[in-house]
Design brief:
42% of the residues lie in helices and 18% in strands. The chain is an alpha+beta fold. It has a single domain (4-129), classed as Sufe protein. Chain: A. The protein has a three-stranded antiparallel beta sheet. Strand 2 and strand 3 form a beta hairpin. 40% of the residues are buried. The structure holds FE2/S2 (inorganic) cluster (FES). Residues 30, 33, 35, 57-58, 60-61, 102, 105 line the site of FE2/S2 (inorganic) cluster.
Length: 141
Protein backbone atom coordinates (compact mmCIF):
# COMPACT_ATOMS: atom_id res chain seq x y z
CA UNK A 1 0.00 0.00 0.00
CA UNK A 2 2.87 2.39 0.83
CA UNK A 3 6.05 2.81 -1.21
CA UNK A 4 9.52 2.16 0.18
CA UNK A 5 10.18 5.90 0.29
CA UNK A 6 7.03 6.54 2.33
CA UNK A 7 7.94 3.83 4.82
CA UNK A 8 11.52 5.13 5.01
CA UNK A 9 10.47 8.71 5.78
CA UNK A 10 7.72 7.55 8.16
CA UNK A 11 9.97 5.27 10.20
CA UNK A 12 13.06 7.49 9.96
CA UNK A 13 11.79 11.04 9.53
CA UNK A 14 14.37 13.74 8.72
CA UNK A 15 14.56 17.17 10.30
CA UNK A 16 12.19 16.45 13.17
CA UNK A 17 12.09 18.94 16.01
CA UNK A 18 11.87 22.66 16.45
CA UNK A 19 14.15 25.65 15.98
CA UNK A 20 13.90 27.86 19.07
CA UNK A 21 15.21 30.96 17.28
CA UNK A 22 13.44 30.27 13.99
CA UNK A 23 13.05 33.12 11.51
CA UNK A 24 9.63 31.84 10.48
CA UNK A 25 7.11 29.40 11.93
CA UNK A 26 4.04 28.03 10.19
CA UNK A 27 1.30 25.86 11.58
CA UNK A 28 -1.52 24.33 9.61
CA UNK A 29 -4.16 21.80 10.42
CA UNK A 30 -6.55 19.46 8.75
CA UNK A 31 -10.05 20.24 9.91
CA UNK A 32 -11.41 16.77 9.21
CA UNK A 33 -8.82 14.51 10.81
CA UNK A 34 -7.47 17.03 13.32
CA UNK A 35 -3.84 16.49 12.34
CA UNK A 36 -1.48 19.42 12.82
CA UNK A 37 1.87 20.28 11.23
CA UNK A 38 4.29 22.92 12.48
CA UNK A 39 7.25 24.02 10.36
CA UNK A 40 10.25 26.09 11.48
CA UNK A 41 12.71 27.77 9.10
CA UNK A 42 16.01 29.61 9.42
CA UNK A 43 16.74 32.02 6.59
CA UNK A 44 19.96 33.69 5.54
CA UNK A 45 20.30 35.89 2.46
CA UNK A 46 17.04 34.54 1.08
CA UNK A 47 18.09 30.90 1.48
CA UNK A 48 16.52 28.38 3.86
CA UNK A 49 19.56 27.26 5.83
CA UNK A 50 17.70 25.03 8.28
CA UNK A 51 14.23 23.58 8.60
CA UNK A 52 12.54 21.40 11.17
CA UNK A 53 9.02 20.15 11.65
CA UNK A 54 6.68 18.64 14.17
CA UNK A 55 3.67 16.71 12.99
CA UNK A 56 0.86 15.37 15.11
CA UNK A 57 -0.63 13.23 12.45
CA UNK A 58 -0.75 10.14 10.33
CA UNK A 59 2.17 8.32 8.72
CA UNK A 60 1.57 9.99 5.37
CA UNK A 61 1.66 13.43 6.98
CA UNK A 62 4.95 12.55 8.71
CA UNK A 63 6.49 11.12 5.52
CA UNK A 64 5.44 14.11 3.41
CA UNK A 65 6.72 16.65 5.92
CA UNK A 66 10.00 14.79 6.21
CA UNK A 67 10.70 14.68 2.49
CA UNK A 68 9.41 18.23 2.01
CA UNK A 69 12.00 19.54 4.48
CA UNK A 70 14.72 17.81 2.46
CA UNK A 71 13.35 19.36 -0.73
CA UNK A 72 13.54 22.96 0.55
CA UNK A 73 16.66 22.92 2.73
CA UNK A 74 19.42 24.91 1.04
CA UNK A 75 16.99 26.39 -1.45
CA UNK A 76 15.80 29.96 -1.84
CA UNK A 77 12.47 31.11 -0.47
CA UNK A 78 11.23 31.54 -4.04
CA UNK A 79 12.15 27.95 -4.88
CA UNK A 80 10.53 26.65 -1.70
CA UNK A 81 7.32 28.47 -2.58
CA UNK A 82 7.09 26.53 -5.84
CA UNK A 83 7.06 23.19 -4.01
CA UNK A 84 3.69 21.61 -4.60
CA UNK A 85 2.06 18.74 -2.79
CA UNK A 86 2.12 16.87 -6.13
CA UNK A 87 5.92 17.19 -6.25
CA UNK A 88 6.13 15.90 -2.68
CA UNK A 89 3.90 12.93 -3.51
CA UNK A 90 5.95 12.16 -6.63
CA UNK A 91 9.18 12.26 -4.62
CA UNK A 92 7.68 9.66 -2.31
CA UNK A 93 6.81 7.44 -5.26
CA UNK A 94 3.11 8.08 -4.75
CA UNK A 95 0.53 7.86 -1.99
CA UNK A 96 -2.77 6.00 -1.89
CA UNK A 97 -5.52 8.22 -3.29
CA UNK A 98 -7.25 8.63 0.05
CA UNK A 99 -4.00 9.88 1.62
CA UNK A 100 -3.17 12.55 -0.96
CA UNK A 101 -4.81 15.22 1.19
CA UNK A 102 -2.21 14.55 3.91
CA UNK A 103 0.52 15.88 1.61
CA UNK A 104 -1.22 19.25 1.42
CA UNK A 105 -0.21 19.92 5.01
CA UNK A 106 3.48 19.93 4.04
CA UNK A 107 3.03 22.45 1.24
CA UNK A 108 0.76 24.62 3.38
CA UNK A 109 3.02 24.60 6.43
CA UNK A 110 6.06 25.62 4.37
CA UNK A 111 4.07 28.49 2.84
CA UNK A 112 2.85 29.51 6.30
CA UNK A 113 6.40 29.52 7.68
CA UNK A 114 7.64 31.63 4.77
CA UNK A 115 4.68 34.01 5.17
CA UNK A 116 5.57 34.35 8.86
CA UNK A 117 9.17 35.08 7.89
CA UNK A 118 8.09 37.85 5.51
CA UNK A 119 5.77 39.33 8.16
CA UNK A 120 8.62 39.46 10.67
CA UNK A 121 10.65 41.35 8.03
CA UNK A 122 7.82 43.87 7.66
CA UNK A 123 6.95 42.56 4.20
CA UNK A 124 3.36 41.83 3.18
CA UNK A 125 3.45 38.10 2.32
CA UNK A 126 0.20 38.22 0.33
CA UNK A 127 1.62 38.97 -3.13
CA UNK A 128 4.60 36.63 -2.57
CA UNK A 129 3.04 33.65 -0.86
CA UNK A 130 -0.61 33.94 -1.86
CA UNK A 131 -3.68 33.33 0.20
CA UNK A 132 -2.94 31.79 3.59
CA UNK A 133 -5.10 29.10 5.06
CA UNK A 134 -6.76 29.70 8.38
CA UNK A 135 -5.56 26.33 9.61
CA UNK A 136 -8.81 24.66 8.68
CA UNK A 137 -9.37 24.25 4.97
CA UNK A 138 -6.79 21.68 3.94
CA UNK A 139 -8.85 18.53 3.75
CA UNK A 140 -11.44 18.39 1.01
CA UNK A 141 -11.32 14.61 0.80
FE1 LIG B 1 -4.76 13.59 8.78
FE2 LIG B 1 -3.29 12.26 7.07
S1 LIG B 1 -5.12 11.57 8.01
S2 LIG B 1 -3.11 14.31 7.62
Amino acid sequence: MYTEQVMDHFTNPRNVGEIPDADGVGEVGNAKCGDIMKMYIKVKDGVITDVKFKTYGCGSAIATSSIATEMIKGHTLEEALTLSNQAVVEALGGLPAHKIHCSVLAEESIKAAIADYYKRQGIDPGPLVGQQSDCAHCCEA
